[in-house]
Amino acid sequence: MKIDLNQLDDSHFGTSTPDPLRYAFVKKHSAHAGGMSMPVSQQDKESIFQSITSVNEQRTKSRCLYIHIPFCRVRCTFCNFFQNAASRQLVDDYFQALLTEIKQKASLPWTQAGRFNAVYIGGGTPTDLSPVQIEQLGKAIRENFPLTTDCEMTLEGRTNRFSDEMFERALEGGFNRFSFGVQSFDTKVRRSAKRLDDREVVLERVAALSARDEAPIVIDLLYGLPYQTLDVFEQDLIDFLDTGAHGVDLYQLVIGGDAPMLNMVEKGRIPSPASTVDKASMYELGSAFMAKHHIKQLSVNHWARSNRERSQYNSLAKTYAEVLPIGCGAGGNIGGYGVMHHRSLDTYMSAMQKGESTIAMMMKQGPLQEIESAIKAGFDSGIIRRSQLPQFQGHDTFDLLKPVFEVWQRNQLVEVQEDYLVLTLAGSFWAVTLAQAAIQAMNTLVKSTANNKSMGHHRLAG
Ligand SMILES: C[S@@+](CC[C@H](N)C(=O)[O-])C[C@H]1O[C@@H](n2cnc3c(N)ncnc32)[C@H](O)[C@@H]1O
Ligand code: SF4
């Protein structure tokens, strides 16, 4: 069995160039590498969900819980995650529905059959809940779900209105990790992106929370925003260091969907976001900055300054772990199915009121599901380990992919070692593109084995 390299092209291999960091590929199309899956019909999704959650056993070693809070006070110009403008009444009604769904999902036999290793409250902006609601939410999770003793419970959000009271109540509720979107500390960049608060306010708040040393404080920084030059980005990195935060994500700005920024650029109200070539230079700067300050790299875009920051959810949810989704707009995967909840708040609320399914869409994951997850996790971590790739029809997947790895090595994107594939700086910048290409390469094998089989059947039938 062999991957036919003729079925792949430069969009998979990258071009041979003296500067692969900037020029190996044209641009990154999405934030995540997708996999192959088939939609389940509307009438089947609920019965399938019931059957995969009525089993009294733990299917995978790790499991996570994802709870979505689909509100933000203000929409940032670059963001595709925005769903609803927060108003007290909407948030309060939603919160009640969420508590009901938490109880329902907790009572499923599958839920109680094993422990959850990581819980993530994401959004939107979960910190737009009230302090009391945040404490209640943490307590509801801990009372209803079986959690491991070292379960990581992350609350995502912003520092705006994240008061001392909210921090105390979140800790009281059991949250033990906080992830704040900062994006950039620079006031001009922030204002043009419609971020709340100016530089000094955000700096001071992140520093004060980090100094408490009660739980890891992690921040997200974007690179490539309008007005965010290389110098501004370098100052963002210095600011991160100065705050004493325990970890940082550096995300390449990828504008898509209906994010308002492009319209503003078209109307000449703000300058364009950075080109891919400029973003590659920013990634290079960020990566060198972390190395210079001996900040430990946990993945291609995440760094930790202290052992307190483990980033469990991110590493588990991207691998073999099952993820149980709760709430409007939440997504997960369980029992070999991808599950996506209603994204419209009205539809979700009305489903909850009528006692109907909250699932909008369900996808049956393809035959390569486990291999795809391992590929995505490997590329995200920067190292693909032979031992962590499941076999494909009895063959070693690392060996099957080796011809592709070798082309990448010639294009300076990776270093092929006996049992490991190590991404270079250029490979790390293009990690999602490479993961997608590896998945497509494996899918050519699925297609060719399926074709061989059907030809075999024809021969038998004839
Ligand atoms: C779902 S958001 C929630 C964070 C929180 N609401 C906030 O604004 O601070 C999580 C992270 O996604 C990242 N993000 C949002 N829009 C992005 C884009 N267009 N490209 C890349 N990353 C993006 C940001 O870094 C953000 O902190
Ligand atoms: S970046 Fe955060 S606060 Fe801004 S619109 Fe997106 S989810 Fe909402």
From TrEMBL:
Pfam families, per database record: Radical_SAM
EC number per UniProt: 2.1.1.342
A GO molecular-function annotation: methyltransferase activity
Residue ranges of domain Radical SAM core in the record: 57-296
UniProt keyword terms in alphabetical order: Iron, Iron-sulfur, Metal-binding, Methyltransferase, S-adenosyl-L-methionine, Transferase
Segments crossing the lipid bilayer: none
Gene Ontology biological process terms from the UniProt entry: methylation
Enzyme class at the top of the EC tree: transferase
NCBIfam families cross-referenced by the UniProt entry: rSAM_HutW
PANTHER family: COPROPORPHYRINIGEN III OXIDASE, COPROPORPHYRINOGEN III OXIDASE
Protein known as: Anaerobilin synthase
Upper lineage: Bacteria, Pseudomonadati, Pseudomonadota, Gammaproteobacteria, Vibrionales
